[in-house]
TrEMBL record:
Protein name, per record: Kringle domain-containing protein
Naturally occurring in which organism (per UniProt): Mytilus galloprovincialis
Start and end residues of each Kringle domain: 8-86, 153-228
SMART domains for the chain: KR
UniProt keyword list: Disulfide bond, Kringle
């Protein structure tokens, strides 16, 4: 099963996008480009005709479409928009190889990803897996994806999840919880065996398993673990 959840796409360069989408990947409304509230606008779209809109646009400084947000939260003055190249990795014609006993969906985080989900689960222990293939800058799907379909591979209470997903919803590999640079992190698992792993957990009770990542540009991210 293929589900394409990006609301819009562009052909050619991101600068060619002329659509009217005005919400970010975190579902925040875009601020008008000619307004300075709630955030000061320091960068504007290249085309002056776009300055009177609040549509997602590309600038000469960032590789993805984005906008300033109307959220007064200082952590979200701007955000990327869920608009992808129409033919990224041949997303509709040449998706990654399917895994048995799965459905899959195409979605957009800050990259284009295909996420696999089990059609049914069996009793047993979870094995290390990452059910996500991401579209790389070389326009090729990542190949280090697999899936485990046991009763441990979903959660009822996120703080009790004990499975072995070790990547994020964007396909980024999780950082080991006992890594030196995480010694002063606000949240880490209390179970010693979890500390020695890089499995997704929810020590902060956010409601969904997550992990710190190995990407220096992404501190932490939620994990592709389904609710039971």
């Amino acid at each position: 099963m293929l589900v394409h959840t990006a609301p819009d796409c562009y052909i050619g360069s991101r600068h060619d996008y002329t659509g009217t989408h005005s919400k970010t990947i975190s579902n925040r409304d875009c601020q008008g480009w000619n307004k300075n509230e709630p955030h000061t606008v320091n960068v504007k779209p290249i085309n002056p005709n776009d300055h009177s809109t609040n549509y997602c646009r590309a600038s000469s400084f960032d590789g993805l479409l984005w906008c300033y947000t109307t959220d007064t939260d200082k952590d979200y003055p701007w955000d990327h928009c869920p608009i992808i190249p129409c033919f990224a990795c041949g997303v509709l014609e040449s998706p990654p190889s399917e895994l048995p006993n799965t459905t899959w969906a195409v979605s957009f985080t800050h990259v284009v990803v295909v996420t696999f989900q089990c059609m049914s689960v069996t009793l047993g222990k979870s094995v290390e897996h990452c059910p996500v293939s991401s579209c790389g800058s070389d326009d090729q799907w990542s190949t280090k994806y697999n899936i485990s379909c046991t009763s441990e591979d979903c959660y009822i209470n996120s703080t009790e999840y004990d499975g072995k997903v070790h990547c994020t919803v964007s396909g980024i590999t999780c950082q080991h919880w006992n890594k030196d640079e995480l010694q002063k992190a606000n949240y880490r698992p209390t179970d010693p065996k979890d500390l020695a792993s890089n499995y997704c957990r929810d020590p902060s009770s956010t409601g969904r398993p997550w992990c710190y990542t190995t990407d220096p540009d992404v501190s932490w991210e939620s994990c592709p673990v389904p609710h039971c």
